[in-house]
Design a protein that fits this description.
Number of domains of chain B: 2
CATH class of the largest domain in chain B: Mainly Alpha
CATH architecture of the largest domain in chain B: Orthogonal Bundle
Order of helices and strands of chain B: HHHHHHHHHHH
CATH topology of the largest domain in chain B: MetI-like fold
Largest interface: A-B, 30 and 30 residues
Helix content of chain A: 25-40%
Shape of chain A: globular
Number of helices of chain B: 11
Structural class of chain A: alpha/beta
Order of helices and strands of chain A: EEEHEEEHHHEHEHEEHH
Radius of gyration of chain B: 23 Å
Strand content of chain B: under 5%
Distance between the termini of chain A: 44 Å
Helix content of chain B: over 70%
CATH superfamily of the largest domain in chain B: MetI-like
Oligomer: heterodimer
Largest sheet of chain A: 6 strands, mixed
Strand order of the largest sheet of chain A: 6-7-8-3-9-10
Radius of gyration of chain A: 19 Å
Distance between the termini of chain B: 25 Å
Number of helices of chain A: 8
Shape of chain B: globular
Bound molecules: adenosine-5'-triphosphate, magnesium ion
């Protein structure tokens, strides 16, 4: 897979109400096959940054290099998964959705269906190949979306809060599944979230962004072995650290400290 | 989640179908109003309130219907009308789709066509009839062109709305997966706009029907249901008139039930893009 370099990327939205900063001077690198989470408060520019990397938005300044090549627009070296369940095409079955990119690539029908089936198996939906999206639950739809983004074999997978609209239980399942999928496919992944636990569970490194206008505050490597245990002390320590860096969460971190102080039993 | 609930309800209905009892109930419910109106009609017709010649009984209408059908006259009228309808409406569908799609896709086309459509659409179709008769002379050409012109607006308007309402996220997903302009159109925009397009075609067809029957009365075409009804007036053949009306109703119902509803069930309903219609 390929490394990604994000160099001095800035974007300003022109709105009728004036100029709104999207992101400002964003700089960081991602290694090949690395899983990076972009973490930040709502409105800090996470989606903006991801859309720039995806090639949907052109930055006002700076550039993105994927495998050393500058991004000039969207391309099939990147697969994208959005938060919105409505991203699937309702007029296509799960299989048809997953095969879409291959169809655009000109892969023959037989072959693309074989590949699409294989991708759906990867996200544990082999029984639902013939289902239309409106017959699938939200979590299943997002799994189809992941399979769809992987099917044409991009080297980079870009995900914008794909599980944010799911209930907590389903979200946990999805995170586990995504970790498995990543281990099997070894894509370079950029995953946007504002959920601290999710970032610690999934990421090799977490890029923490400052509130509006978004810049990179710091990059924190998560040095935990996989599969990770969300209840381990180290896991919780990382969560606390990230919460502290998120800045606006000082009150929360205070509470965490108090809770910790009051519970000496956890210390043994 | 609401979406899922309705979806699974549709799934169940589609899997097992309504029970025979429920089916009979809906049939009874649907025919009941007609039975009542028919009974009132019979009472009035037999009461002698109006001359029998002007207010035929249902028996007379049925007899006339059968006679005209057996003699081949009614089918001939009906087929001529249908051909005109298909020619006019087909033209409207093609031109309407092209204009509607270009309005939805291009700002400039929208700027040009929207004012025109907004002004021309609300004018009753019949108001254009004298103009078309003067331009193209009485006969087939006028009839077909007028049907096309009048029924085009509903297609244009709904197609335009449909194309505009195609979700941004579908376009983005397709772009990310490498769709070029042509396939973006055929694989995403058309199916995405289909619920609206079908509505437009359906409304356009209703308009086409209405104007066609009127135009056949005025455009001096030799055959056609409108002409049958209009001509029957001269000889006080009210039973033949009513037979013509019945055929118009039957064809309209047939097109709705066996063409549009089938297309919808097979596409947008199956895809969950609109709810299933009551049976
Ligand atoms: N299309 C747009 N036009 C104008 N301003 C925009 C647009 N999209 C985003 N913005 C602004 O840019 C800033 C960053 O938005 P963005 O959607 O990237 O935030 P985010 O971090 O993804 O937030 P969230 O977690 O809520 O999704 C916000 O202040 C927002 O108001
Ligand atoms: Mg966002």
């Amino acid at each position: 897979m390929v490394p990604i370099e994000i160099r001095d990327v800035t974007l300003v939205y022109d709105t009728p109400g004036g100029k709104v900063p999207g992101v400002k001077d964003v700089n960081f690198n991602i290694d090949a096959s690395e899983f990076v989470c972009i973490l930040g408060p709502s409105g800090c520019g996470k989606s903006t940054l991801l859309n720039i990397i995806a090639g949907f938005l052109a930055p006002a300044a700076g550039e993105i290099l994927i495998g050393g090549k500058a991004v000039t627009g969207h391309g099939m070296d990147r697969g994208v998964v959005f938060q919105d369940f409505a991203q699937l095409f309702p007029w296509r079955t799960a299989l048809g959705n997953v095969a879409f990119g291959l169809e655009m690539k000109g892969v023959p029908k037989q072959e693309r269906e074989t590949i699409a089936r294989e991708q759906l198996r990867l996200v544990k939906l082999e029984k639902f190949v013939a289902s239309y999206p409106h017959h699938l639950s939200g979590g299943m739809q997002q799994r189809v979306a992941i399979a769809r983004a992987l099917a044409y074999n991009p080297s980079v997978l870009l995900m914008d809060e794909p599980f944010a609209a799911l209930d907590a239980l389903t979200r946990d399942d999805m995170q586990r599944l995504l970790a498995d999928v990543w281990r099997e496919t070894r894509k370079t992944v950029i995953y946007v979230t504002h959920n601290v636990a999710e970032a610690v569970y999934l990421a090799d490194r977490v890029v923490v962004m400052t509130p509006h206008p978004g810049t990179v505050k710091m990059v924190i490597p998560i040095k935990l072995t996989r599969p990770r245990d969300p209840l381990s002390v180290e896991f919780l320590d990382y969560q606390k650290e990230l919460l502290a860096h998120l800045g606006h969460g000082t009150a929360e971190t205070q509470e965490h400290k108090k809770a910790n102080g009051k519970a000496p039993t956890t210390g043994g | 989640m609401a979406v899922q609930d309705s979806a699974s309800a549709v799934g169940v209905a589609g899997a097992t179908g309504p029970s025979a009892g429920a089916r009979w109930r809906t049939i009874t419910l649907n025919t009941y109003p007609f039975v009542v109106v028919g009974a009132i009609w019979e009472v009035v017709a037999h009461s002698g309130m109006f001359p029998r010649k002007l207010f035929p009984t249902l028996e007379d209408i049925a007899r006339s219907f059968i006679d005209l059908t057996v003699s081949g006259i009614l089918p001939h009228h009906a087929i001529d009308t249908l051909l005109r309808l298909l020619a006019g409406f087909g033209l409207a569908a093609i031109v309407g789709l092209i204009i509607g799609v270009s309005m939805g896709r291009s700002r400039r086309a929208e700027d040009i066509f929207l004012p025109l459509v907004s002004i021309l659409a609300p004018i009753p179709g019949l108001a254009y009839t004298p103009l078309f008769l003067l331009w193209f002379g009485p006969g087939e050409v006028s009839a077909v062109l007028l049907v096309a012109f009048v029924s085009m607006f509903a297609v244009i308007y709904n197609t335009w709305t449909g194309v505009k309402s195609v979700k941004e996220i579908w376009l983005r997903s397709a772009q990310a997966m490498g769709a070029d302009d042509r396939r973006m159109f055929s694989h995403v925009i058309l199916p995405g706009a289909l619920p609206y397009i079908l509505t437009g075609l359906r409304l356009g067809l209703a308009q086409a029907w209405r104007i066609l029957v009127a135009v056949e009365m005025l455009a001096a075409v030799p055959w056609g249901l409108g002409w049958l009804i209009f001509g029957a007036r001269e000889f006080l053949n009210t039973d033949a008139m009513m037979a013509g009306v019945v055929v118009i109703a039957l064809i309209g119902l047939g097109l709705e039930k066996y063409v549009f509803q089938k297309i919808e069930d097979y596409t947008v309903v199956r895809w969950g893009m609109i709810g299933a219609m009551a049976p």
